[in-house]
Amino acid sequence: MPSEVLSYFLKNRDQRLRLAFQVVLQCAPFLKGLKVSCVISVDAVLYGGLAELFRDTEIAYSRLSCSEGKCLVLFYRPDELERYLNSPVIRGLIREYGYSDMNLGEMIRRLAGRIEDFSKRGMGFPHEIGAFLGYPPDDVKGFIENEGKKYLMIGYWKVYSNLTGARMIFKEYDRAKDCAVNEFITGKSIREIIL
């Protein structure tokens, strides 16, 4: 995608247009149904515009943190994310971080609390966020065990296992991004882009 196109949308004075383009650009694999959720950082002044963007869709969003004029926002389809987080492998992984016997809302609030705590201590993000974003469990475990180092490849996440599978997924995500951005540029709304 030409840098002029990116620059035009990301620097546009129309805040609603800028927010919509950012969401399409950064959340395309999620919007197209390839990911269980996504997280992006949006300007705090634009956060209120998300309600209009996602009105009449199945997509929910939760503010995980907000500081220095930026809000970290998790986008998800509630039933799908809850089903994913309750799958045996993922449940076993996140249980180690205190996510036991919780519904989706409680899990998201716990994640937000842990993000705030980690931020205050200058520790980045809690490692289990990868599970909430649908990263392969072996890669989430690999990241934790290797402290973010010794990865095989970096793309949409750091890959520690199944390099071939990750490459295929990254290509699918790239195609979804190209498709969603092209649809947006031709005038489709986020509601029309969402699968």
What does this structure look like?
- The protein is an alpha+beta fold and 195 residues long.
- It has helices at residues 3-10, 15-31, 50-53, 78-85, 88-95, 104-120, 129-132, 137-145, 163-185, 190-193, and strands at residues 37-43, 60-67, 70-76, 153-154, 158-159.
- It has one domain (3-186).
- It has 10 helices and 5 strands, in the order ααβαββαααααββαα.
- The strands form 2 sheets. Strands 1-3-2 form a 3-stranded antiparallel beta sheet, with helices on both faces. Strands 4-5 form a two-stranded antiparallel sheet.
- A hairpin with a 2-residue loop joins β2 and β3.
- The longest helix has 23 residues, at 163-185.
- The chain is globular, with a radius of gyration of 17 Å.
Please give the number of β-strands: 5
Number of domains: 1
Radius of gyration: 17 Å
Given helix and strand content, the structural type is alpha+beta
How many H/I helices?
10
Helix content: 40-55%
- Quaternary structure: single chain
Largest sheet: 3 strands, antiparallel
> How do the strands line up in the largest sheet?
1-3-2
How do the helices and strands follow one another from N- to C-terminus?
Answer: HHEHEEHHHHHEEHH
The whole-number mean of residue pLDDT values reads 92
Shape: globular
List segments where confidence is low: pLDDT < 50 over at least 5 consecutive residues: none
